Amino acid sequence: MPSTLHIQTVRFDGDGSALVRMVQSVAAAVTELRRRQPHWAVRLAVGDAGTADDPDAHLDDTVVDQLRTAAGDARMELDIDAFGANLGHGAGQNRLAARRAATGDGDVIVVANPDTYLTPTCLATLL
Fold it and tell me: DSSP secondary-structure letter at 73?
């Protein structure tokens, strides 16, 4: 039976390099998860809260391209939600989770900070 894993993070400020490393680590963990348990579909959501100076500031196109490449290499769907405001970490995570719940699919949500790096076996062990 197919299962869906939602991984989500909220980004605020910074140049996006930590977020890219985070998504690359998630991609490695997803690749290992699928090696062990190939039935998992994975969706990655990034909430973009802008910067302290400009809540409407979006991730640089180069960063977005790097995120899409990492997600694509691991066959993950990637959704970037530009909040247009700093909602705070908890409210941002809740917004992303509510969007996922509205789709009616999904078995597991993993909430992570954008400076979190998963070990390659993290998801396979967790699930």
Answer: H
